[in-house]
Write a structure and sequence with these properties.
Blueprint: H1 57-60, E1 75-78, E2 90-91, H2 93-98, E3 109-112, E4 122-125, E5 127-128, H3 130-138, E6 142-145
Parallel strand pairs: 1-3, 2-4, 3-5, 4-6
């Protein structure tokens, strides 16, 4: 066996379809395009979404909503989720990721005030809701906002 006489296995390849090469090929005359019509003509391709001149669906439906360019998306954590920490713990985005409360520290962290907190925790995050701040301080913890 040498490189110059390698061949694919028998039956593993097919000859390509040679359309428009006479009636004997089985793909002559109309060259598998059927009879007449837009799709039989040269350059006869139809753009995606074209509905034969009827107003296309994407133009019939109303435009809705607005996405501001400078919108900041936060990773949200409720204070009732912070009960897994021991009293006096320092909580930041790294420890939140380590304990699985947020997926990654790619987004800034915002602490929300849903639930109750019983332990005094030292929390540093990018934003706090007012109710979260009040509950953390009432429990004897500290709040540090990261710029």
């Amino acid at each position: 066996m040498e490189l110059n006489n390698l061949r694919p296995s028998a039956g593993s390849t097919k000859n390509r379809k040679r359309i428009g090469r006479g009636t004997g090929s089985g793909h002559g005359k109309t060259a598998t395009k059927g009879h007449k019509g837009q799709k039989a003509r040269s350059g006869g391709s139809i753009k995606a979404g074209f509905e034969g001149g009827q107003m296309p669906l994407q133009r019939r439906l109303p435009k809705r909503g607005f996405t501001p360019i400078d919108r900041t998306e936060y990773s949200l954590v409720n204070i009732n989720q912070l009960d897994i920490y021991e009293s006096g713990s320092i909580i930041n985005s790294v420890s939140l990721v380590a304990n699985g409360l947020i997926k990654s520290d790619r987004f800034p962290v915002k602490i929300l005030g849903n639930g109750d907190i019983t332990k005094s925790l030292n929390i540093s995050a990018h934003k706090f809701s007012q109710s979260a701040k009040d509950k953390i301080i009432a429990a004897g913890g500290t709040v540090e906002e990261i710029a």
